[in-house]
Design brief:
CATH topology: TIM Barrel
Distance between the termini: 9 Å
Strand content: 5-15%
Strand order of the largest sheet: 1-2-3-4-5-6-7-8
CATH architecture: Alpha-Beta Barrel
Number of strands: 8
Number of helices: 12
Largest sheet: 8 strands, parallel, barrel
CATH class: Alpha Beta
Shape: globular
Helix content: 25-40%
């Protein structure tokens, strides 16, 4: 398993000297001392309302929000990402989880055809720091930015200010960046995704979550992703997990993203939490086996199917 030490963490210079050790501590905790991020995305209750938590093909356990925290507690993850209020309601019962507070969100009720997307900031960084002071294990914050939206300038400004404040207080920042809006004709274009990765770097994010690019006749999605991984520089690039698919297909895609596309981890939500608790926990272990342990697909499948164990 690849490991890094505190001296190997690249600390941005906008991290204040008094917060430097805390930033390193949070970075190592979030990446399980590997430099790679296994982000369990649990922000969809606002983003997709209840459609991701109840219905055909979704385990009934997923309709209970505590299911997310049970997975985060029993599974193998780096951070659990969710809105401040959701974390505040459950973190007291699950204090060992590393939390990342999602600072903005919007629902999916307003389609792009009606209006370009804008995800408003929901609360101040001070309210997040207050939660940390109350004992919640918060290691970072997240923010979604829609490049190409007519509201792009507002989101860029909000993200930039949040990154400055978060780093000053020793917190990591993960940006979700999706090109989207009436000006965007192909959200999965490899050059556009590479451009989004570069924007995250220029804003100062520690990690950026993007959608994997669409494969072409001459290159796979993983091969095209390498362009974005290079463009992101010292900002670690991770891919969104997308809708639930067969475990072998998902793990194969993940392996290619990391070992062909240069990704620095993954950000997975529905593929994990729409399953039963036992199956979801095993999938977090299989995902982490690839992300953190450099297992191959077959070895990760053995973990998922219970034939092999993976622990940090």
């Amino acid at each position: 398993m690849p490991t890094i030490t505190a001296s190997q963490v690249k600390v941005p210079v906008d991290v204040m000297p008094e917060s430097r050790e805390l930033y390193i501590e949070n970075y190592l905790a979030a990446t399980q001392n590997t430099g790679r991020l296994m982000l369990f995305a649990c922000d969809q209750k606002v983003e997709h309302l209840n459609g991701d938590f109840y219905g055909a093909g979704i385990d009934p356990a997923d309709n209970d929000p505590e299911h997310l925290f049970q997975i985060g507690s029993q599974g193998t993850i780096g951070v659990l990402a969710a809105q401040r209020g959701l974390i505040a309601q459950y973190a007291g019962d699950y204090p060992a989880i590393n939390y990342l507070v999602k600072m903005n969100s919007k629902t999916n009720l307003i389609e792009t055809e009606q209006d370009d997307p804008y995800s408003p900031q929901l609360y101040s960084l001070e309210s997040v720091l207050a939660l940390r002071e109350a004992g919640v294990n918060i290691v970072g914050i997240g923010y979604t930015l829609y490049l190409g939206s007519e509201y792009e300038a507002t989101m860029l400004a909000e993200a930039g200010e949040l990154i400055t404040e978060a780093h000053a207080n020793g917190l990591l920042v993960v940006l979700w960046i999706y090109p989207r809006g009436k000006a965007v004709t192909d959200e999965k274009d490899a050059d556009l995704i590479a451009g989004a990765a570069g924007v995250a770097l220029c804003l100062g994010a520690d990690f950026v979550k993007v959608n994997p690019p669409k494969a072409t006749d001459v290159a796979s999605s993983g091969e095209l992703l390498l362009r974005a991984a290079k463009a992101s520089g010292r900002t670690g690039l991770v891919c969104a997990g997308g809708s639930t698919v067969d475990a072998e297909k998902f793990l194969t895609q993940l392996y290619e993203q990391i070992h062909v596309g240069g990704a620095a981890g993954n950000a997975t939500g529905r593929n994990i939490h729409q399953r039963s608790l036992a199956e979801a926990v095993r999938l977090t272990q299989a995902i982490s086996a690839i992300t953190l342990g450099d297992y191959d697909v077959q070895e990760a499948l053995d973990v998922f199917e219970g034939r092999e164990n993976f622990t940090i």
